[in-house]
Each structure stands twice: as C-alpha cells, then as structure tokens.
Amino acid sequence: MELNLEPLNLPGVENKRPLVIAGPCSAESEEQVMETALQLAKNGVKIFRAGVWKPRTKPGGFEGHGTVALPWMKRVKEETNMLVTTEVATAKHVEAALEAGIDILWIGARTSANPFAVQEIADALKGVDIPVLIKNPVNPDLELWVGALERVNGAGIKRLAAIHRGFSSYDKKIYRNLPMWQLPIELSRRIPNLPIICDPSHIGGRRDLIAPLCQQAMDLGMDGLIVESHCNPDSAWSDANQQVTPDILDYILNMLVIRDEIQTTESIVALRKQIDEIDNQIMDILAKRMRVCREIGHYKKEHGMTIVQTSRYSEILDRRGAQASLCGINPGCVRLIFEAIHEESVAQQVEIINK
Ligand code: PEP
Ligand code: MN
Question: Is the CB of 159 under 6 A from ligand 1?
Fold first, then answer.
C-alpha cells in the first residue's frame, strides 16, 4: 500500500534536522513536569514529551497518572509555548488526549506490535488531523511497523513519522534494545518521505550512550531525535538510568555534527560513478560464476554425484573468510556473502539435476 503523507508541519518548529522532542519518560507530578519543561524551553526545545499512560513490563510499577496528568501538559503548553506529545495505547487514551489539546500523539513499541490495538487507535483517529509518531514494534519485524503506519494512514492521518527505538533482545550487553539500523534504513528506502526520529534513550538504556547514538542517527540521515530528559534523572520513577538533565541534553545536541544528507559535490558524484561501475563488474563476475556452477551441475548429474559436498563448502567459506581479514573486511560479512552465493549455486544445480 502506498502511504498518503504530508509534511509534519509543526507550528512554531523550524523545519531543520534534527527535529528535537524531549521530556521525561513519565509525567510524575505537576512540579516535575513544569520544572523539566521550563528548563527544556529555556534551552530552545520546542516539543515536550511525557508519558501519561505507561505500559510496564511487570505489574506493580508506576503505570502513569493517566488523565490526572493531562492538565499538567496543558500548563506546559500555556507557559512555555512548546508543543506537547504523549503515548496513546487505547481509543480511550486518544479521546482523552485530544480533549486535553495534546498536539502530537505517539504509539509505543508494545502497542505497535499489536495490530488490534493499532487498529483501535486508528479508528479513534478517523476525521482528526493530528501528527502521529509510530514507534517500531518491540520485535524486529519491518512489515509490522509498516502495517501500523498503513493502519493509521488508512484512517486519514497524513502527518506521520516513525520512531526508531531499537528491538528487544535477550542480549543486553551493550544496548537495552538492539538498534539494528538496517530496519529503519530499509523503512526509509521503502517510504522515502516518511520522517524518521531516533530514540537513543530506549535503544541505549544508559546516559552515556545518548550522545553517540544521537550522532549515529544523524550520520545515517535520520530526521529527528526523541530524548528522555528529566530535571532530576536519578530520582525518576521510570527509566532513571537513561534520562539526562535538560542542560546535559543541550550540551549533547550542541556537540552534534550535522552532515547534509544530499551530497551534490563533484567528488561524491564521481565516487558514486565508480561504485556503480564496480557493482556492474560484481554482477558480471557473479553471472560468470553461476555459468560455471551450472556446468558443474551437468557434470554432477552425468556422474551421479551429490550437489552439496560439505568439505568443499567449508573450504570456500574458510578460505574467503581468511582472505577478508587480510583485505580489511569483516570476515563475518564475507562469510554471509559466500553463504548467499552458495545457496543460489545449489538452487541452480538442483534445477539442472532434476530436469
Ligand atoms: C517511552 O517512550 O517512554 C516508552 C514507553 O517507549 P517504548 O514504547 O519505546 O518502550
Ligand atoms: Mn521511557
């Protein structure tokens, strides 16, 4: 399905990279919300986030104040002129948030993973014109993410953006949620005019990872950043380890190097021509390799040989892996390439033998 999108067009927000959204994980009290919002506004942040309804992994955690916190968001709007955004997970949340004048809605990762819930939200949004940000589902399923975007777009919401917040994994050695950058990159390739906002807080899960993740998101050409910021991070009721003060956030944002996505200089054009030429050569060589493979297929058929000879296969993988190291290429990457080539060669030989 082709998405019908319009630019986010956020009043009072300059149209430049990165679009910054910041605020605490949760709205904990009117004082915490106002204190954080005033500090962020002073530093030039234009969009304030705070979770009013919090999906928690286990019962017993702070699940947000709910509708009680909505007037605090209203006060932020009135006293700072910032736009405000919160997470919605049910039709009731949507109604309450719209009623309270929330400017932008976001759909959380646990909700994006559930098509029934996304559809319920989409239905509640029919006839409403509000920007909606859709986080990736907790699992690395691009189709599910696209499906959520399609459902909301199908309800008539044209001002859409995606939030990349990483993917749940048992391995939490470095990241709380694995970035798997190839997914947002593929999303962007498939839906080129969809803005992509990176959430370094939930990817990293740690304060010290916020700066490098923001830089990486910018280097990959992402459009915005949504960062958890709290006036007193250590005492936060949720996600304390990953929140930074508004001043630290300001420091991080000021240190970012923003490179232009569109490179039109002479040299990049010339270099890209070289890449295209090399890719052509790779294709020619691959075609040549497949021709030889097919010949071997005929030979194997005539001599009643099996297609896959594991010792030969291991030898190819080991030899090219070792060669990769010498050429300064990751052996794991080269192994993957040769596995894919081998798979196609086997498929072609199977076809010959069964003819
Ligand atoms: C959040 O933004 O605070 C949140 C709950 O994030 P996610 O849905 O990405 O877990
Ligand atoms: Mn959070």
Answer: no
